[in-house]
Write a structure and sequence with these properties.
The protein has about 625 residues and is α+β, with helices and mostly antiparallel strands. It has 3 domains: about 200 residues, Aldehyde Ferredoxin Oxidoreductase,  A, domain 1; about 180 residues, Orthogonal Bundle (Aldehyde Ferredoxin Oxidoreductase Protein, subunit A, domain 2), CATH 1.10.569.10; about 180 residues, Orthogonal Bundle (Aldehyde Ferredoxin Oxidoreductase Protein, subunit A, domain 3), CATH 1.10.599. It has 25 helices and 17 strands. A hairpin with a 6-residue loop joins strand 4 and strand 5. Helix 17 crosses helix 19 and helix 19 packs across helix 21. About 60% of the residues are buried.
Length: about 625
């Protein structure tokens, strides 16, 4: 392969037929789709036709690295998994850190494509050029932590990297995650559920090869300064961690509480990042090639949760804390540990439980319906018990919640869908729609469902760079530009926590040039990002998605927020429609349908997509 940074090879593994094929990575993929989610979206487009059930053997899940993985570029040891999501029916992907991505690259592969279904629970062991599909029946029901420990012992190497699912993935909880390094996760969109549907328990990797870059001498000089920047004043994540947002959001009255019914939390001080850092954090961990070290690990030393260990970020702390009315750090740490070991996404878990709590408090669910749980907001014990039941699919109520808030609300009826806080089936993250409306637009247009990490548009509201209580047709540009930019980042793949050290994005293009040998500007990468994102949109169109799915839950339009800061805060439907129009027009998509236009697809050299989706 001409470009450096890539191995030029990937594995194509058919679990049904137990076939392992080594394939060459097409040269044009690197120059058109970069890597990471770009390769994953292209794989899904080429392999998953219309009407394929996400839990059928015909779904394809692929794992990809970016060109920087395994090199000296900081915060780049990441990988992605991509498939049709069983939670949303859209393109689904997540990104994880740790050491797994670099290890896969050093094993000699840019990615692994998994298709079919094994006849029994299995795992795959990649040991450089030796690839085996192995029996995993002895791992049935094992947690993600247990699975990693057992495989390292079984394969007699503690340095082997493992990505696995827990019982939630095996039992097809639709928001099951994939875990590596015990506290790193591909959390969103239920990719662990896809693994479970294939009887695919784990992917274990050992790699001993070098990753070749084009200009090592100059790259070394550049990364020395970048590492200094990672530890400098530009970065606060390593010192304080993202949980410091709890008090900041509470002060600003944007801390969604009790299933988004309130925007402040009386117990915010009790679950603040500052309190957590002072009393609970016992270790701060970094990923490979990372000088930031953002992972703050809680250890509970006493009380009924003594011995509990949990890696806590802002989203997890919020979803299993204020959103559920829980103001106890020990309880939140226990809840996070259960999600991590059983293998469920903390955000979807918390939002789904919060929806159930609101149903319970409104009398829609009784104690009999909840299988004996008193699901009042703030009942930490009930929340923890319910999370464990969901992860193990125990009881009819927990089984229903394991389908996600959208399907659970549709089954429950009684207008509970109006306060199931999801878009396209994906539970929303911690940026409330009525009081952060640019962020709301980014959540709604997101091709994977409601997630803040696909455009970063919430930052305009967070920094008061716009009027966060209103919308107009200019916001679409902010969202779309953010989507393209984040698509580049997620295709390279580098950690978004590094964005403060790249105020000039040309630095990323320069690193690309040093690694790959191609000489381009950042605009060239952005053009590729736009192509990747648009192809992801076309995948969704192929599977039935239009403008109709780019709307918020009714709560956002019909229930104003009133408190000491927010006054009659609500999303106005006419403003929303104008903002959507502005977004589609800026994208050069049809504003009536939300579908990319034929001429737009031709400009992006996506003629086959235009033909496939009928434009």
């Amino acid at each position: 392969m001409e470009l450096k940074g890539y191995t030029g090879k990937y594995l194509d593994i058919d679990l049904t037929n137990k076939e392992v094929k080594l394939k060459e990575l097409p040269e044009d993929w690197a120059k058109n789709y970069i890597g990471g989610i770009g390769f994953g979206i292209k794989t899904c487009w080429d392999n998953i036709p219309k009407d394929v059930d996400a839990l059928s053997p015909e779904n394809v899940i692929s794992f990809w690295t970016g060109p920087f993985a395994g090199t000296l570029v900081p915060v780049s040891s990441k990988y992605t998994a991509v498939a049709k999501s069983p939670l949303t029916g859209t393109i689904g992907f997540g990104i994880s850190s740790g050491y797994f991505g670099a290890e896969l690259k050093r094993a000699g592969y840019d990615g692994v494509v998994i298709r079919g279904k094994a006849d029994k629970l299995s795992y795959i062991f990649i040991d450089d050029d030796v690839v085996q599909i192995k029996d995993a029946t002895h791992l049935t029901g094992k947690t993600t932590w247990e699975t990693e420990d057992i495989l390292k012992q079984e394969l007699e190497d503690k340095s082997i990297r493992v990505a696995s699912i827990g019982s939630a993935g095996e039992k097809l909880v639709r928001y099951a995650c994939i875990t590596n390094a015990k506290n790193r996760h591909i959390g969103r969109n239920g990719l662990g559920c896809v693994m479970g549907s294939k009887n695919f328990k784990a992917l274990a990797v050992r790699g001993t090869n070098e990753v070749v870059v084009d200009d090592l001498k100059t790259l070394l000089k550049e990364v020395k300064q970048l590492y200094k920047d990672c530890r400098g004043e530009k970065m606060y994540y390593g010192r304080e961690g993202t949980p410091i947002k709890i008090l900041k959001h509470d002060k600003k009255a944007v801390l969604a509480t009790n299933n988004f019914q309130k925007m402040t939390f009386d117990g915010a001080e009790n679950v603040s990042g500052e309190k957590m850092m002072e009393e609970k954090v016992r270790k701060i961990i970094a990923c490979e090639m990372c000088a930031v070290a953002c992972d703050h690990v809680n250890v509970i030393k006493k009380g009924k949760y003594k011995g509990t260990v949990g890696s806590i970020d802002f989203e997890s702390l919020w979803a299993l804390g204020p959103l559920c009315g829980v103001d106890c750090l020990d309880a939140v740490t226990k809840a996070v540990q259960l999600c991590d070991t059983l293998g469920t996404d903390t955000i979807s878990t918390g939002v789904t439980v919060a929806w159930a709590m609101e149903c319970y408090e409104k009398g829609i669910f009784t104690k009999q319906d909840t299988d004996g749980l008193e699901l009042n907001f703030g009942n930490a014990d009930a929340m923890i018990e319910l999370i464990e039941r969901i992860g193990n699919r125990e009881g009819e109520f927990a089984k229903m919640l394991g389908e996600g808030s959208k399907l659970a609300a549709q089954k429950t009826g009684k207008d509970t869908i109006n306060f199931a806080m999801q878009i396209k089936g994906l539970e929303t993250s911690a940026y409330p729609f009525r009081v952060m409306q640019t962020g709301a637009l980014g959540h709604a247009t997101c091709i994977t469902g409601a997630f803040y990490q696909r455009s970063g548009s919430y930052q305009y509201d967070e920094k008061d760079a716009v009027d966060r209580y209103s919308l107009d047709d200019s916001r679409g540009k902010l969202v779309a530009d953010g989507e393209d930019d984040y698509t580049v980042v997620d295709s390279l793949i580098i950690c978004k926590f590094s964005r403060r050290i790249y105020p000039d994005k040309e630095k990323l293009a320069y690193l690309w040039n040093l690694v790959t040998g191609e000489k381009i500007k950042y605009q060239d990468l952005l053009d590729r990002g736009k192509k990747i994102y648009t192809l992801g949109k076309c995948f969704n169109v192929r599977h039935g998605f239009t403008r109709q799915q780019d709307y918020l839950p009714k709560r956002a339009y019909e229930e104003p927020i009133n408190d000491h800061i927010n006054k009659e805060a609500v999303v106005k439907m006419d403003e929303w429609d104008k903002a959507l129009d502005g977004y589609y027009e800026y994208r050069k998509w049809d504003k009536k349908t939300g579908i990319p236009k034929k001429e737009t697809l031709k400009e992006l050299d996506l003629d086959d997509a235009a033909e496939e989706i009928g434009v």
